[in-house]
Design goal:
This protein is mainly beta. It has 2 helices and 17 strands. Strands 2-3-4-5-6-7-8-9-10-11-12-13-14-15-16-17 form a 16-stranded antiparallel barrel. It starts with a helix and ends with a strand.
Length: 384
């Protein structure tokens, strides 16, 4: 049954082996290129690249043959500039990845990822523009700072594009990031650019908040990562809540949207310099029992365990991991409502999150009556 799948799997495996021969020196030690203008002002530019080849069982148009596909998952240009001691600008773009517009093909669309002005008010930070609202760790990681290659299927907060929304937020941290909180209000489902039917005719705002406490080393900053590769010992617990009145359903049958989650990250350096990573999250999405074309009512959960082996293999180190995800959809009764994915993979860490190669196998079950889908992926990630 899997002969075609296995044959194409061999092709992707060959791609993985060849990719291991890429010159690591082209990516090692990169940081964003920063130009100092004077003692206060500076300009910084960076790049991000993720591309993958996948074999998907029964993924061909005929529904019975395995499909092999190569995609640009993310191509990003990052820019930032400090204007004064208290004001910083950030502007990031995303190329491809299905970000089509009316005038551009999906593979060639250029979209605004982030456009934000950041104010340092001496104890508080205030951001305004388009950026990631307060949400779960996976979303604040973004695709470049996960502990796995694929973005979680259980992350389902509303967004305009790539987890972003337009609005403003205030944030504060204590003891260098041991405890931190953020709160913001955003356009939510009222923004027509997300392609929704605009259930919120009253133009209500989406409210979002996140609270994080670190029991071990503090984590400064608004954005997150799911692995420090041994640089920090982390035990972080966070709670997130988002709410928008009339933010679910349709224009004629609107209901309130409320989503919340807990997420936990534990990462500890152990004997021999090896690093143990454990990550988990639970999600609850409530659509007021309304049917929605973009959002799903239900509960999601994920658990990940990883182990970074502190032994040089070529130019990098190996980090095997396993991850389980489940999304129990309320609108479908019984086991048929559960979509699950179990995966195992190996990250080849060349330079932290700046340069790595990932290989993973996953098995998807979309309800008890559906056949499971096997998938093998080789992904490349480089950024500076």
């Amino acid at each position: 049954m899997l002969s075609g799948f296995k044959r194409k799997l061999c092709i992707v495996t060959a791609v993985l082996i060849l990719s291991m021969g890429l010159p690591a020196l082209a990516f090692a030690g990169f940081a964003n290129a920063k130009v100092k203008i004077d003692d206060t002002r500076w300009f910084r530019v960076g790049l991000g690249f993720r591309s993958s080849v996948a074999v998907v069982e029964d993924g061909a148009p005929n529904g019975t043959s395995s499909a092999v596909g190569a995609v640009f998952d993310n191509i990003r240009l990052y820019t930032a500039a400090r204007v004064t001691d208290h004001v910083t600008l950030e502007f990031n773009t995303e190329y491809g990845g299905g970000t089509s517009t009316a005038s551009l093909d999906a593979d060639e669309a250029l979209a605004v990822l982030d456009a934000v002005v950041k104010f340092d008010l001496g104890g508080f930070d205030v951001w305004a523009g388009r950026f990631l609202p307060p949400s779960d760790r996976s979303n604040l990681d973004g695709p470049f700072f996960l502990n796995a290659y694929d973005f979680p299927i259980v992350q389902a907060y509303p967004a305009i594009f790539a987890g972003r929304d337009t609005g403003a937020a205030i944030m504060k941290e204590y003891d260098g990031g041991r405890f931190k909180w953020s709160y913001g209000f955003f356009e939510g489902r009222t923004n027509s650019t997300n392609g929704d039917s605009n259930p919120d005719g009253a133009d209500n705002l989406l409210h979002a908040a996140r609270f994080t406490y670190n029991f071990w080393d503090p984590e400064p900053g608004y954005y997150t990562t799911s692995t420090y590769h041994g640089a920090l010992d982390v035990l972080a617990v966070a709670f997130v809540i988002q709410h928008e009145e009339d933010g679910a359903g349709t224009a004629t049958t609107a209901g309130d949207f409320t989503g919340w989650n807990f997420d936990v990250l534990m990462e500890k350096k152990v004997s021999g310099g090896n690093v143990v990573s454990l990550e988990g999250a639970y999600y609850d999405y409530d659509l007021d029992d309304k049917t929605d074309a973009s959002l799903t009512q239900g509960q999601g959960y994920l658990a990940l365990a990883g182990y970074l082996i502190n032994k040089q293999v070529g130019w990098g180190k190996l980090q095997p991991y396993v991850r389980y995800q489940g999304f129990d959809r309320d609108e479908v009764t019984g086991d048929n409502g559960l979509r699950s994915r179990i995966e195992g993979g190996v990250n080849y860490i060349i330079d932290g999150q700046n340069a790595k190669i990932c290989a993973l196998y996953s098995r998807d079950q979309n309800g008890s009556g559906a056949d499971p889908k096997n998938r093998f992926v080789v992904g490349l990630q480089f950024q500076m």
